[in-house]
Design brief:
Blueprint lengths: L2 E6 L5 E5 L18 E3 L35
Antiparallel strand pairs: 1-2, 1-3
């Protein structure tokens, strides 16, 4: 069953409620009994079992050098 996070506007507490997805929009009361709560946006991340990420190579340094594009300035 999914867990939904809420914050109480009266006391500032955050809490979670486990409920079916069909009831996800229903209001939730704070554990302290306050009714003025707001549902929080929560996110989650997934981890794949594929190969490990490969390190990218460092950016190439510009060719040449100096103020003249590679030659020695006189």
């Amino acid at each position: 069953m999914p867990s939904y996070s809420y914050r109480c506007r009266s006391c500032g507490d955050t809490f979670e409620v486990n409920r079916p997805m069909a009831e996800s929009s229903n209001p939730a009361s704070c554990p302290s009994g306050h009714a003025d709560t707001v549902k929080l946006l929560t996110t989650f991340a997934t981890v794949s079992r594929g190969s490990a990420p490969q390190a990218s190579s460092p950016p190439a340094r510009p060719a040449g050098g100096g103020c003249c594009g590679g030659g020695c300035c006189s």
